[in-house]
Design a protein that fits this description.
The chain is α/β, with parallel strands linked by helices. The chain has helices at about 45-50, 120-125, 125-140, 145-150, 165-175, 185-195, 205-215, 230-240, 260, 275-280, 285-300, 315-325, and strands at about 1-10, 20, 30-40, 55-60, 65-75, 85-90, 100-105, 110, 155-160, 180, 200, 220-225, 240-245, 265-270, 305-310, 335.
Length: about 350
């Protein structure tokens, strides 16, 4: 089968950073599905894992985590899907990735593809949807059955224009929250407003002063999707006493938790690969939440975050997509099909 892999960790401008290769088509066993991949999307994690380092692989390493496609074979323990089913998923960081023609994935982290979307539009969603859903409704414990109470609460989403932010804004609005998203360019500001943000502030300026201008003193929740170190003091400043902060961006320097102490603020991490990495007992929750995302899409409540589409799926296209994501200014998601 066709695949795109790497042996050396090189700058993306180097043609050897990602290579077109041939691999043997895998066979599913146990709870694994074999999926024919029709579209993929590129996430910051793809770029981070591929970034230059002094390491050489003995066998080609296949990156990629978002995919949509069709189930072609199932393992003997599979109960959720059958051949012919259309699916979308984000895979596992501990297994070979989705830059390939056929891919093995545990069915417990796979969802049914939204019916109204193309494969390309669907491939933009899994990793960011899982991240946003887990961050909002599991880590921050926002209750989706408590819409009237949520209407009285504010959430600040730092980095609203990226893949996770674009989904998180929509899910937070669906849950009833007032959403303040950050953006620093006019095109990003327009993007987050289009996805439902009630207010937009600039993450390069004082959070507190900007919030006070729209008569918001504190926020009940913060979802940090951009530079935890840079925004740490500002988050501590504007979070409400007994509020909750969740980040998906690992810190480079030690975080001073003491700045949260007087307010009794909860701080929690979100890493969407935790369940698949540790084979947790509740792995199937990702299957269930992806199906919920499909329902929300098909009912017109949320929409795809695809903003750029490339073709075909080969080393050249993926290098282009990595370069776009590496700039740090990508709005929404870049996907590759065919």
């Amino acid at each position: 089968m066709k695949a795109i892999g790497l042996l050396k960790y090189l700058p993306i401008e180097n043609k050897e950073s990602l290579l077109d290769i041939e691999l043997e088509k895998p066979t599913p066993k146990g709870k694994d599905l074999l999926v024919r991949v029709n579209a993929i999307s590129i996430n910051p994690v793809d770029v981070k894992v591929r970034s230059p380092k002094d390491k050489v692989e003995d066998e080609p390493k296949i990156l990629g985590w978002d995919a949509s496609g069709v189930v072609v074979e199932v393992g003997e323990e599979c109960k959720l899907f059958k051949p012919g089913d259309e699916v979308f998923y984000a895979g596992s960081i501990t297994r070979p990735g989705t830059y390939c023609e056929y891919h093995l994935v545990d069915e417990r982290i796979v969802g049914s593809k939204p019916k109204i979307l193309t494969y390309a539009e669907s491939s933009a969603l899994p990793l960011t949807s899982i991240t946003a859903w887990e961050a909002l409704f599991e880590r921050l414990e926002i209750n989706t059955n408590n819409i009237e109470v949520n209407k009285l609460n504010n959430i600040l989403i730092i980095g609203g224009g990226g893949g996770v932010g674009s989904i998180a804004i929509q899910l937070a609005k669906w849950a009833g929250l007032n959403v303040i998203a950050t953006a620093s360019r006019i095109e990003t500001e327009n993007w987050v407003k289009d996805f439902g943000a009630d207010y937009v502030i600039n993450h390069h300026e004082s959070f507190k002063e900007q919030l006070q201008k729209v008569e918001i003193e504190h926020v009940d929740y913060i979802l940090c999707l951009n530079n935890t170190d840079q925004h740490w003091e500002s988050m501590a400043d504007v979070i409400k006493p007994q509020g909750k902060i969740c980040s998906i961006v690992e810190n480079e320097n030690p975080l001073d938790l003491n700045v949260l102490k007087s307010k009794s603020v909860t701080f929690v991490w979100e890493f969407m690969f935790t369940r698949s990495m540790y084979q947790t007992e509740d792995m199937i929750n990702q299957h269930l939440l992806l199906n919920k995302i499909s329902d929300l899409i098909d009912n017109g409540i949320i929409k795809t975050t695809m903003n750029k589409k490339l073709s075909p799926i080969n080393a050249e296209s993926i290098r282009k997509a990595h370069k776009l994501v590496e700039t740090g200014g990508m709005i929404g998601k870049v996907v590759i099909e065919n």
